# Entry
Amino acid sequence: MKNPNRAFKDEIYEQFARIGKAVSSPKRLELLDLLCQGRRTVEVLAKESGLTVANASQHLQILRAARLVAAEKEGQFVIYRLANETVCEFFRTMRVLAESRLAEVEQIKRRFLEGREGMEPVDRKALLELVRKGAVTVLDVRPVEEYNAGHIPGALSIPLKNLRLHLAELPHDQDIVAYCRGPYCVLSIQAVEMLRAKGFHAVRLEEGIQDLRALGLPIAIGETTK
Amino acid sequence: MKNPNRAFKDEIYEQFARIGKAVSSPKRLELLDLLCQGRRTVEVLAKESGLTVANASQHLQILRAARLVAAEKEGQFVIYRLANETVCEFFRTMRVLAESRLAEVEQIKRRFLEGREGMEPVDRKALLELVRKGAVTVLDVRPVEEYNAGHIPGALSIPLKNLRLHLAELPHDQDIVAYCRGPYCVLSIQAVEMLRAKGFHAVRLEEGIQDLRALGLPIAIGETTK
DNA sequence: TTAATACTCAATTAATCTATTGAATACTTA
DNA sequence: TAAGTATTCAATAGATTAATTGAGTATTAA
# Structure
């Protein structure tokens, strides 16, 4: 009477653990986080996560075996993407849980921002009110493809790489709010640093698109004429 | 310029992975699932999960190190509980993700229920409508403490252990709907089997209290006079 | 056809994790 | 105070995992 029940439970939890094992490695979590922003080739994922291509490929196959991501071959490239949006939601839940339960996360963040005065993220609510009123310029510094996949309505798309060349398009008489992939992406930090050095008044929005979507805020899709 | 950013990311994802590592073992997931139902001593957790006490204790400490559970000493017992309800929600998200992405889960479930005709769970919506009308008797077969922590309004509490002694309290002229901790708990299956053998018309509700709560249904708390 | 690019595979090593055992600690009751 | 119960600790062996390396396959471009 006990045995078949135990075997059943063991098998079921074994399956659940496949998901857990997939998200038990820091590098795989970083890959998942990147894939939350959109599809990517192995090489790009490897580069962005600081892995060798072979190593990234292996991690991606583990994620695929857990059915968290899927891959399609396009020409000579293999393009990985999240299996579905639920995976993104799951990753976010896990991230929020870590932020709320593990004090170390806040510590690491603080330590990283130390010495970069005023780089603390601004208040989201007040900010989005200003955005609605058009009282600030919102700047999306992610690569263009990510902007097209979803951005804050009215935001200007200038990837960090090109920022130096497009400074003329930005106003000196208005606040500039830069955002990127989320709290652990450094693109917006670098953007704000550069803008301040050039005399702009710039602040950083910590939330990424996934966060804003989860908060129920409207997200625009596709290109926008600047 | 690249180095400090990489170190920052490595540290952050390392923290996230603490959560992932904690939920990467089948036994720890089973312990978490049990704790979603309420606080328990090490010994009870060990017994219910089929672990030795020493082993259960070690797993619990790993869960505690990841801040998913907390422990309090009461007399000679150490009582473990979830750190907060977010953990329960996280576990549920993970479970739902596994169910939706891993076909094996459904297979294992089907195989287990094979040969137990009519044990397939009944339609939740139709059922809850009947419950509201009082057209069925709802039976909670979990231990009393778990019933008190939260149950379907109007449900009768008869733990599986005592069921044989309380058969007289159940109606022969009405459907009986038994439920327990959720889809992977076998208490309600055993209850339905026993009831059918005794000539009752019994069916099983697959959802547990956590599922019903997540669906936004009302949950009653505390004892109920039968 | 050849060379280059993008990715995967297989084998190795070092590190980490799991379950087991027996002993140690802490609290309660007799 | 002694005995019993509940839990944790420490040491171990076996299993699993991660990163590395070098080779292998598939596709594209020259």
User: Anything to note?
Assistant: The beta strands of chain B are 40-41, 69-74, 77-82, 136-140, 156-157, 175-179, 202-204. Chain B has eleven helices and seven strands. Chain B touches chain A through 52 residues (CB under 8 Å).
